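### Sample
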Amino acid sequence: MSDSLPSVAFLGAGSMGGAILRGLVASGLPVDGGVLATNRSAAKAAELAGLDGVTSVALEDDPSGNVAAAASARVVLVGVKPAMVPDLLREIAPVLRDDAIVVSLAAGVTLRTFASILGDETAVLRSMPNTPALVGKGVTGLAAGPVASAEETAIVRRLFETVGTVIEVPEERIDALSSISGSGPAYVYLLVEELTRVAVEQGFSEADARAMTEGTFIGAAALLDATGEDPAELRRRVTSPKGTTERAVAVLQRAALGGVFREATDAAIARARELAAGA
């Protein structure tokens, strides 16, 4: 694999596309031909304009920005809202390079939708990254379309590896993966919010409550990463027999968290299917 990437265009560098873009820049991996990014507003485009090697275009100033970016880049990432994807694909289809690799960042938009507009001969991959990509700790699911070669898939994998871990899956597993790693950061933040609220109720200041809770989550995750231990084993090491942690964990286990998470992920998968159906 080359120590550089071919030219890359981010069509819609919003929260997710912007996270991948910033992570790519932070990684220092060279991009031959540079990186282009488009956003609808000048304000959003200005946020990316200072990034090294990035040309940031505001569509309100240059309505042809998506077409120009797509025409010049080998790797074209589609990061607009799912409902906007078909119109964008119709706009760029006539100008895509013969060797273009189109990568979807849009939840719920199928490879079939891309092929129906771009043609069956265009290499398309569907990705599902998450926002920790911004700090190089992302998890990205990657599903290759039927004509994407091993070399083309490797290029896209290399791009996403600059911002974390990549898991290759068949397309039918993308929605399930999204319900775990794609939406998962929100689950963690919700747990942090709730435990912080409890700490405040116990008399701690907001600052101390946040320091305790956020530090505990960050530290526990870092320990899990550093040791490679099974989380159940690390939990057992904290849980002394007949101690305070054992009593607290018993309460959490009675709450049937597994069932709650199953219901939550099922809801996310159902919504992804609604998006795919245009609902």
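DSSP finds twelve helices and eight strands in the chain. This sample (Pyrroline-5-carboxylate reductase) is used throughout the tutorial notebook.
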